[in-house]
Amino acid sequence: MTRTNYIARNSAGTKKAVVAVLAIAGTMGLAVSSPAVAQYRNEIHNDMSRCTAGSGPAVMVTVDGVKASKGNLRIQTYHATADEWLKKGKWLSRIEVPAKAGTMTFCLPVPAPGTYGVAVRHDLNGNGDTDIMSDGGAMSNNPSINIFNLGKPSYSKVGVPVGKSVKSIRIEMKYM
Length: 176
Known about the structure:
Elements: H1 3-37, E1 42-43, E2 58-66, E3 72-79, E4 93-98, E5 102-109, E6 114-123, E7 136-139, H2 155-158, E8 160-162, E9 166-172, E10 174-175
Parallel strand pairs: 1-4, 2-9
Antiparallel strand pairs: 2-5, 3-4, 3-6, 6-7, 6-8, 7-10
């Protein structure tokens, strides 16, 4: 093999190696940037194993006072900030399940330690619309909601600090 053939052959191998390294780096770059894209609107299942000892960060939410075993219960987490609390499309994770009268428990993993708000809605007739006179609602820290105060409570009233482990909270459903 001549020196020229040797250099040409190694150059081709080097090019393949560089292309492979760049492909891997690109894949890693996409993997690193993906959470920013997937940060919002994560529909998840109620996986209680994510709230066992040693797990986290997560919020284990016990919802009391579910009126009836009909319709759907939707529970969502938000960053408890003015820019994100209850803003359309800014929910982090959502679980939607058929409602069961009484008490229901959910595990909502959160991306990192921080302050989060939890919103619960019972779509009693399952039509997907908010029917103020029949549907139920509730939020973390159980802020006062009544017919005279239908506006959303401030993020500072619903914010729950979550560390590296599982934070347990109770939420009481309210119906008109």
